[in-house]
Write a structure and sequence with these properties.
The complex is a heterodimer of chains A (231) and B (50). By secondary structure, chain A is mainly α. Chain A has a domain of 144 residues: Up-down Bundle (Fumarate Reductase Cytochrome B subunit), CATH 1.20.950. Chain A is built from 7 helices and 3 strands; from the N terminus they run E-E-H-H-H-H-H-H-E-H. The two termini of chain A are 16 Å apart. In chain A, 21% of the residues are buried. Chain B has a domain of 28 residues. Chain B is rod-shaped. The relative contact order of chain B is 0.14. The chains are: A mainly alpha (231), B alpha+beta (50). At the A-B interface, helix 5 of A face strand 2 and helix 1 of B.
């Protein structure tokens, strides 16, 4: 049963065979372009971290050129996502609103055993998924902007280095922010991979690889009022 | 453990060079500790959902 339904947060979507509503029917959670964006970003960030930290750990190689090339790829990917996401994906599915704060309160009450009532199911993205997205956004933007600034200090095929563009003190702040973003990424990637591999989250990982979840998984993990797909 | 890397310029003034790479193991093990703490919590303490 390979029926596939396209779904967007807040939007009704198409389903194209008579197996609609069957538990094994597939609902598209991530379009191919979004999955490519995710995995290209992941690969780019891993290249950036490897070229940044392997020399620190004693593995010496010519890391500067692959680092700035990967940095340019990351900046291009971020620009692509920032331009595309508001139109193609909608901001609402990733927005943290009053309902999410009520969810947070109910999650805390449930986990502290102050209430037996399980938290309400989320829409397309849970509060935790929204928070990790926004945290990655802030940290990656910091790394990309500071990295872009640092490229002013090196020769590239397009310009000659200018180490005096900012004062020494300002360059210092830029370096600190860049390094801090890189260090935070190490912690965040460990946590991100851990959650991706947890048994109850594997459906989300599969959807980031293959694009879909089953209608059964949709019913089990999502509130159909908050993430509408056509029945 | 140093938090920042500093050097001195030709005039002897301190120049900020960035965060200290001594912090790399700290951030790595913080991630590992978070994973262990969450896994233990979910295994031993977290209420089961109906």
């Amino acid at each position: 049963m390979n029926t596939t339904t396209n779904a967007r947060s807040g939007d009704a979507a198409d389903i194209d065979t008579d197996t609609r509503g069957a538990p094994g029917a597939r609902i598209v959670r991530h379009a191919l372009v979004d999955r490519l964006f995710h995995w290209l970003t992941a690969a780019t960030v891993l290249v950036l971290l490897a070229t940044a930290f392997l020399p620190v750990l004693g593995v010496q190689f010519g890391w500067v050129t692959p680092h700035w090339i990967a940095g340019l790829v990351l900046i291009a990917l971020i620009v692509f996502h920032v331009v595309r996401a508001p139109f193609a994906l909608g901001m609402r599915s990733m927005w943290i609103g009053a309902a999410d704060l009520r969810d947070l309160a109910s999650i805390v009450r449930f986990n502290l055993r102050l209430s037996d009532e399980p938290p309400r199911k989320p829409g397309k993205y849970s509060l935790a998924q929204k928070l990790i997205h926004h945290l990655f956004a802030v940290v990656l933007l910091t790394a990309a902007v500071t990295g872009g600034l640092m490229m002013v200090r090196m020769d590239t095929p397009w310009w000659k280095r200018n180490p005096y563009w900012l004062s020494d003190a300002t360059w210092g702040v830029v370096y600190v922010l860049h390094g801090l973003a890189a260090l935070l990424l190490v912690t965040m990637i460990i946590a991100h991979v851990y959650f991706a591999l947890r048994p109850e989250k594997l459906m989300f990982t599969r959807s980031m690889i293959l694009g879909w979840i089953t209608r059964d998984e949709y019913a089990r993990s999502h509130d159909p009022e908050r993430w509408k797909v056509e029945r | 453990m140093e938090l920042l890397r500093v050097s001195r310029d030709v005039y002897g003034r301190e120049v900020l060079e960035g965060v200290s790479w001594d912090l790399l193991p700290v951030f790595f093990w913080a991630g590992v500790a978070f994973v262990c703490a969450h896994a233990l919590y979910r295994w031993l303490l977290a209420p089961k959902r109906r």
